[in-house]
Amino acid sequence: xxxxxxxxxxxxxxxxxxxxxxxxxxxxxxxxxxxxxxxxxxxxxxxxxxxxxxxxxxxxxxxxxxxxxxxxxxxxxxxxxxxxxxxxxxxxxxxxxxxxxxxxxxxxxxxxxxxxxxxxxxxxxxxxxxxxxxxxxxxxxxxxxxxxxxxxxxxxxxxxxxxxxxxxxxxxxxxxxxxxxxxxxxxxxxxxxxxxxxxxxxxxxxxxxxxxxxxxxxxxxxxxxxxxxxxxxxxxxxxxxxxxxxxxxxxxxxxxxxxxxxxxxxxxx
Amino acid sequence: xxxxxxxxxxxxxxxxxxxxxxxxxxxxxxxxxxxxxxxxxxxxxxxxxxxxxxxxxxxxxxxxxxxxxxxxxxxxxxxxxxxxxxxxxxxxxxxxxxxxxxxxxxxxxxxxxxxxxxxxxxxxxxxxxxxxxxxxxxxxxxxxxxxxxxxxxxxxxxxxxxxxxxxxxxxxxxxxxxxxxxxxxxxxxxxxxxxxxxxxxxxxxxxxxxxxxxxxxxxxxxxxxxxxxxxxxxxxxxxxxxxxxxxxxxxxxxxxxxxxxxxxxxxxxxxxxxxxxxxxxxxxxxxxxxxxxxxxxxxxxxxxxxxxxxxxxxxxxxxxxxxxxxxxxxxxxxxxxxxxxxxxxxxxxxxxxxxxxxxxxxxxx
Lengths: 269, 365
Prior knowledge:
The structure holds 2 protein chains of 2 kinds.
Chain A: E1 2-11, E2 14-24, E3 29-33, H1 40-47, E4 54-59, E5 62-63, H2 69-73, E6 76-79, H3 91-101, H4 108-111, H5 114-121, H6 137-151, E7 156-157, E8 160-161, E9 163-167, H7 175-190, E10 194-198, H8 202-208, E11 211-216, E12 219-224, H9 226-229, H10 232-239, H11 262-268
Parallel strand pairs in A: 3-10, 3-11, 6-9, 9-10
Antiparallel strand pairs in A: 1-2, 1-4, 4-5, 7-8, 11-12
Helix pairs in contact in A: 3-5, 3-6, 5-6
Chain B: H1 21-44, H2 52-59, H3 68-105, H4 118-132, H5 138-144, H6 148-168, E1 169-170, E2 173-174, H7 176-200, H8 203-213, H9 222-240, H10 243-249, H11 253-258, H12 263-285, H13 291-303, H14 307-331, H15 340-360
Antiparallel strand pairs in B: 1-2
Helix pairs in contact in B: 1-3, 1-14, 2-3, 3-9, 3-12, 3-13, 3-14, 4-6, 4-7, 4-8, 4-12, 6-7, 6-12, 9-12, 13-14, 14-15
């Protein structure tokens, strides 16, 4: 369980987060939503100790302020929003960096082929020999996810759950890979690990999140199960747009990720 | 998707695509032999016809030990060539490693102690000792003896590296232009102070300064080896512990810390190692440029940027490169010799321009 207990974050003299609390249990995918500048990424950065904060954050009951970088790295991995590399690493070399850092939790013999396994999971089999800098933005994002997965490959090691912090993991991906990556995150949570993801797409959030925390101007507006947070009132309060939940438009075409596979399902039925 | 269980257990049968560690290992091994060859070359070439083979023969009892020519050879080889060779190895390795460490710290392949003012800072430290060591700073120089010069150069390098890092890096990001320009400014400032000291220097000190500043291994003595050697060896040993952190740092400071690198401590150690290696090298050899940029760059093209192999390979190739340049500097205008800084610059300058041109083509660096 990651427990954030009323933290404040001030960056360059400006208070970004006000009294934010959040609980993200292992086994669940917890989504953070909110408009631009609402403090989502700041919250994640405080969680990663990139920003100083007041208040307490605990990881399975231990205050993270007192943990060493190595200790934390063996219990949680962080997917950054974007990474550029100054040197010409191959894709495999980038992914393998996840091995040297954390604690994959697999047998040492399997370790050697873990990068290939991780690349397959993000649909990049055969990309190992390519140069990272030559890939598209979406491919680079998936390479980083493969690296992050290597760091905490087994969601639970010795009965202790591990966590993934994902900052907009699907922001530059096409719809197929958005679903694929969210499936990877969901699978990690189903296997006993914890996931905290900053998400922009409300439909993907509805489809995958077990719990949602909505932020606006650095404060928690709503927190709880998706049905409780994704309501007309909350969404309007958070995003300042009169959205209606569960209402199909009367005119024009629309595509929802929820529709995947449903055509087939109807025919079979 | 292949399951982990069905893949070969040892991994020797299938080498994963994009895994260049075998090239790294082979290169390091090859460079060990290259360095050994360069060391032999360095011991056997020189202005005098001293024969290292005869000397070894005499140790084995094959050549009479009281041969007067042999005694002269013994003096030349043991007191002139050998310290020069040892110093060349230490300084070559030290300069290459300090370049590599700076490139990793600044996440920038163009960072080099010579280019961004760290060498100038070290040189200022050394100039202060050369000019003021006998007068104003006499208590210091008499207290630390032969280590006064390297210690002062280390201090100068440490101060300039720290200032450079503070100026050029914000929130873990270094802007290339800021770094290079800050380096020019810091180098100019250090140069100005050195200029003032040169102005007040006595005639003897001026001669010392001139020869020292041209960059040379010519004045190598065992005393100099003793003065600079331990500092460089410590810096190299420190660098050995930094390779994992350097790899992680290429992903950015924040990600490095997420990967378990204690970033603040890592940066302090790296700056210390850079200042130590640069300072000690500059103190005993003056301005030998371009080793720190040519060597790591060349190796990145061959083995990739994984610092676990890049670090030892750079140390080995740096030492080999400097010994070869030194041998060349002794041969080209024999029996006189060129300052080695001229030779390294003759190789390094064009190479540096080539890097700049090459970098424009997408992702070649």
